[in-house]
Amino acid sequence: MLVRIVLLLVAAAALALCASGCAAPVDAKETINIRFSRFEPETITVPAGEPVTFTLVNDDPIEHEWIVGTAETHERHRTGTEPFHAEIPTEVTIPALTTRTTFVMFNTAGEYEFICHLPGHEAYGMKGTVVVE
Q1: pLDDT at 84 over 90
Q2: Distance CA 109, CA 107 (A)
Q3: 3-state secondary structure at position 122
Q4: Does the structure show a pLDDT above 70 at 70?
Q5: For the chain, what is the total number of helices (H) and then of strands (E)?
Q6: Domain ranges in the chain?
Q7: pLDDT at residue 80, rounded to an integer
């Protein structure tokens, strides 16, 4: 009988610990609004190693793109000729007055810039930062 009580107490303690810290990861959700050729907010903090849903809302009457990544990624896009982005979750074209959703998981902590590389947009200040903690 004593063994059964001890086992029940151990099981209850394990369940209590798991309930406080073993919950399944929840998909983080972030919305980035585009208005007057600016990203709002300009800085977003997300968890490392967990999926994040980004909703990109373009309220402008012109097309934009949301490219997030390393300096090498941005250099490639500054000199590249890709007219449309639809296959890579960190490279999204957002037509005028539309909303796009993408799912990204950043495995490594750090800071990653997001930039619109359409002609003149980056120079105008259309950029921001994803901080991964």
Answers
A1: no
A2: 7
A3: helix
A4: yes
A5: 3, 9
A6: 25-132
A7: 75
